[in-house]
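Reminder to self: tokens first, then the designed residues, so the page reads top to bottom the way the pipeline ran.
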């Protein structure tokens, strides 16, 4: 019993430490909901596929030029029936080596951000707009996004999340079919066929701009509220 209490206190300390690191001094007094913006077009696909079928259909994909330089296809991972799906841009070096999304430094920050709203990685589903690492971590190109998009669309359709958190410009713009900058998209809640889409900054951007963590915390509180 004593040991369990000590573990709980240690967990709580780590959690508070993270919040302090994010610049948060008080814990979630939830604010009124952001205005929802309906988006008329895209996802999800109507086909009712299981994730395994989507992975099988993707196979050893060579549908775009990224197949020539990748080590592994990073399909995505997490709870197949997650209420929250997080979608980033594409795999980086660590992800390409391990075949798992968000496992590098930015991924570790994402894990801590999730922990701040009391979620473990295995309670959510994490994927990317493109599933193969672009050479030198360059931005994904339109033809690559176009080739990979149907599979992300099918993943969304299979998981049917309640909320999608779009991490960074490419994820937000691809999901919302807009070319608006992430700075203008974040802070809003979009609705795509009943799925709430919440754009926020990519954890890699947060590593370079730690002063933006407070805004991400606001977005996380919104997610918590909607969940
Ligand atoms: S990025 Fe997507 S479409 Fe291109 S090769 Fe990889 S899995 Fe296929």
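Designed residues (227 positions):
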């Amino acid at each position: 019993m004593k040991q369990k209490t000590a573990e709980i206190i240690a967990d709580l300390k780590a959690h508070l430490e993270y919040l302090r690191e994010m610049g948060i001094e008080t814990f979630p007094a939830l604010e009124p909901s952001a205005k929802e913006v309906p988006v008329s077009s895209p996802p999800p696909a109507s086909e009712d596929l299981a994730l395994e079928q989507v992975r099988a259909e993707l196979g050893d994909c060579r549908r775009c030029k990224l197949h020539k330089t990748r080590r592994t296809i990073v399909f995505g991972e997490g709870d197949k029936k997650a209420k929250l799906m997080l979608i980033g841009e594409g795999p980086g070096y660590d992800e390409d080596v391990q075949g798992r999304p968000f496992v590098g430094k930015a991924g570790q920050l994402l894990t801590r951000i999730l922990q701040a709203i009391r979620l473990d990685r295995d309670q959510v589903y994490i994927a990317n707009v493109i599933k193969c690492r672009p050479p030198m971590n360059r931005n994904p190109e339109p033809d690559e996004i176009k080739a990979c998009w149907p599979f992300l669309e099918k993943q969304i359709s299979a998981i049917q999340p309640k909320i999608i958190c779009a991490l960074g410009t490419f994820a937000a713009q691809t999901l919302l079919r807009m070319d608006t900058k992430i700075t203008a998209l974040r802070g809003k809640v979009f609705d795509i066929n009943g799925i709430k889409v919440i754009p926020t900054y990519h954890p890699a951007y947060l590593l370079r701009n730690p002063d933006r963590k407070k805004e991400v915390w606001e977005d996380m509180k919104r997610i918590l509220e909607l969940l």
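The pocket of iron/sulfur cluster is lined by residues 58, 61-64, 66-67, 73, 130-132, 144, 147-148 (CB under 6 Å).
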